[in-house]
Design goal:
Blueprint: E1 5-6, E2 14-15
Antiparallel strand pairs: 1-2
Length: 30
């Protein structure tokens, strides 16, 4: 599992921890 990392460089993508999404990475682009 990786911690939640927020990228704020033009776009913001948030990677959810795999404990919340069984092995999958949830990416939110704003």
């Amino acid at each position: 599992s990786r911690p939640d990392i927020t990228f704020a460089v033009g776009v913001c993508a948030r990677y959810q921890d795999e404990s919340s999404y069984s092995g999958e990475e949830n990416i939110e682009v704003c």
